[in-house]
Amino acid sequence: IIANSAIASPATDLMQKLKQMQSFEAKFEQSITNDKGAAISNAAGFLKIQKPGKFYWKGEKPDQVLIVADGETIWTYDIDLQQIIKQKQVQSMGQSPAALLAGNAVNLEQEYKISQVDAKFCGNGASVCYQLDPKVKDNQFKKIQVGFNGNQLVCIQMADALSQTIKTRFNQVQVNHKLDSQLFAFKPPVGVDVIQGNP
Fold first, then answer.
1. Distances (CA, A) of 71 to 84, 102, 103, 185, 199
2. What percent of the chain has pLDDT over 90?
3. 86 and 60 in contact (C-beta within 8 Å)?
4. Residue pair 165/33 in contact by the 8 Å Cβ criterion
5. Among 85, 88, 129, 171, which is disulfide-ready with 122 (CB 3.0 to 4.6 Å)?
6. Is the pLDDT confidence value at 2 over 50?
7. At CB < 8 A and 24+ separation, what contacts does 39-48 make?
8. Residue by residue, what is the 3-state secondary structure of 72-119?
9. Once rounded to an integer, what is the mean pLDDT over residues 142-148?
10. Mean pLDDT of the chain
């Protein structure tokens, strides 16, 4: 058993860690910087995920955005603008850390080359850092780094096509707790504009 674990590939290690998280709750802090490292925005809030494909992402002030996915539809509610975007949910890599965590881990190896890099690249107390490099050039991300401290997820860092870096740090993490299914049943508030996204 020791020999097998010693030669397990980074892809196998990462997918095993993600598969073990059937539900995930945490507070988050997120920063976005441009290609020169200058700050674009900072946000904080909390995240709840229930596999397969369900998540609830609530950003607090100053960026009050609620994103709810029920497995078929993603609702993005900008509370300040009083506007909702409704999109079909795709069961693959999405545009947020929540979509990454709620998706099917098997898809990751199909879409990304997974390697292990120095933990300092993830930071936030990570003891191990996995890097995901897209296998296709038209991917929306240049690379993704996922940091764990033991088996606990502590951060996700994404570099997008514009060379912006989106770093999300997690704390007060709880894994595999029972979540209320109603949390993922979003109903647009009365009087709020709903815009249809992708067809």
1. 17, 9, 10, 10, 16
2. 65
3. no
4. yes
5. 129
6. no
7. 40/164, 47/97, 47/98, 47/170, 48/23, 48/24, 48/179, 48/183
8. CEEEEEECCCCEEEEEECCCCCCCCHHHHHHCCHHHHHHHEEEEEECH
9. 94
10. 88
Residues 6+ apart with CB under 8 A from 14: 105, 108, 114, 130, 146
Express each pLDDT in 31-46 by its tens digit.
999 999 899 999 999 9
Nearest to 52 by CA among 104, 88, 92: 104
Question: Smallest Cα–Cα separation from 79: which of 63, 55, 94, 68?
Answer: 63
How far CA 125 is from CA of 107, 147, 150, 158, in Å, comes to 27, 8, 10, 17
